[in-house]
């Protein structure tokens, strides 16, 4: 049975400073990932589209924070772990000029036993908000630790 | 992109065949801000020291590629990807061909949504990354 203080669940352990989404960063991201959808790369087409202007590809939401400092705040259950997956809810588009903050809390911790032995999963939920305080995305980061 | 009324369970997305380069991995790691601290995405030797075959794609980059399959399918249509979930089963390596594909597993007329199963497979048809996504259609 995995041992941790239940008080850490759902308690925000970190809220980041706002990061401004620069238009040139978005274009670079699209280039690297191979995104060619006009909604993300073609201003004229995007202006006529359903969002009235360029928006970030939805997957841009996961580039803001990637867990590299999460384990300064939450238990690590073992020598090393890795990113086992993500669940992302895209609530509203991210646009150039938006200032994004992330608040993160431990959502759940659970143990699983597979063929390769025991694993502890730590799920951290990050909520992304823009400068208006609107939620743009929820990201559940699922980290797997091996004791 | 079709309207909600035109899609059906079993409709396919892709296949999208591509080969991600090592430079793309490095660029993605730079975007995430981990290029200097996660050598497995940027440096062949550092990756091998971790027991990996060489540089691997960041998990988030695989998520981005799966998302691209969906957003390509949506095109300029009146629909939006509202959710994606991924599980990283095996490392995805650059400079090796991968295929990204998916199909519609369910639709909900009341919610005007489509559920899509997605995956990235290697040349041996091993599914390295699997996922699901939800697309919500406008009216």
Task: Provide a short characterization of the protein structure.
With 147 residues, chain A is mainly β. Chain A is 14% helix and 39% strand. Chain A has a domain at 6-21 and 63-146: Thiol Ester Dehydrase, Chain A, CATH 3.10.129.10.
Account of the 3D structure:
The complex is a heterodimer of chains A (147) and B (139). Chain A is mainly beta. In chain A, 14% of the residues lie in helices and 39% in strands. Chain A has helices spanning 23-33, 38-41, 43-48, and strands at 12-15, 19-20, 80-90, 99-114, 117-129, 135-146. In chain A, strands 1, 2, 3, 4, 5 and 6 form a six-stranded antiparallel sheet that branches. The longest helix of chain A has 11 residues, at 23-33. Chain A starts with 11 loop residues before the first strand and ends with a strand. Chain B is elongated, with a radius of gyration of 16 Å. Chain B is an alpha+beta fold and 139 residues long. In chain B, strands 1-3-4-5-2 form a five-stranded antiparallel sheet, with helices on one face. Chain B has two domains: 4-20 and 57-137, Thiol Ester Dehydrase, Chain A, CATH 3.10.129.10; 21-55, no CATH class. Helices cover 24% and strands 35% of the residues of chain B. The two termini of chain B are 14 Å apart. Chains A and B meet through helix 1, helix 2 and strand 3 of A and helix 1, helix 3 and strand 2 of B. Strand 3 (80-90) of chain A pairs antiparallel with strand 2 of chain B, so a sheet runs across the interface.
């Amino acid at each position: 049975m995995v041992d941790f203080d239940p008080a850490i669940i759902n308690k925000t352990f970190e809220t980041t400073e706002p990061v401004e989404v620069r238009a040139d960063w978005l274009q670079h991201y699209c280039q690297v990932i191979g995104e060619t959808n006009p909604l993300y790369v073609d201003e004229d087409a995007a202006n006529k589209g359903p969002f009235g202007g360029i928006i970030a590809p939805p997957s841009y939401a996961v580039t803001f924070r990637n867990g590299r400092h999460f384990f300064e705040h939450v238990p690590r259950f073992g020598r090393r772990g890795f990113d086992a997956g993500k669940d992302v809810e895209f609530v509203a588009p991210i646009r150039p000029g938006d200032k994004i903050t992330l608040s993160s809390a431990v959502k759940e911790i659970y143990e699983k036993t597979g063929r390769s032995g025991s694993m502890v999963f730590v799920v951290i939920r990050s909520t992304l908000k823009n400068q208006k305080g609107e939620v743009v995305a929820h990201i559940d980061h699922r980290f797997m630790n091996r004791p | 992109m079709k309207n909600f009324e035109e899609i059906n369970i079993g409709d396919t997305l892709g296949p999208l065949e591509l080969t991600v380069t090592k430079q793309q991995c490095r660029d993605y790691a730079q975007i995430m801000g981990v290029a200097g601290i996660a050598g497995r995405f940027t440096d062949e030797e550092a990756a091998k020291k971790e027991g990996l075959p060489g540089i691997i794609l960041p998990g988030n980059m695989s998520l981005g590629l799966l998302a691209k399959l969906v957003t390509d399918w949506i095109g300029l249509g009146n629909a939006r990807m509202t959710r994606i979930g991924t599980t990283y089963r095996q490392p995805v390596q650059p400079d090796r061909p991968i295929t990204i594909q998916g199909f519609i597993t369910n639709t909900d007329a009341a919610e005007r949504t489509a559920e899509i199963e997605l995956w990235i497979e290697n040349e041996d048809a091993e599914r390295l990354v699997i996922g699901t996504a939800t697309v919500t259609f406008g009216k």
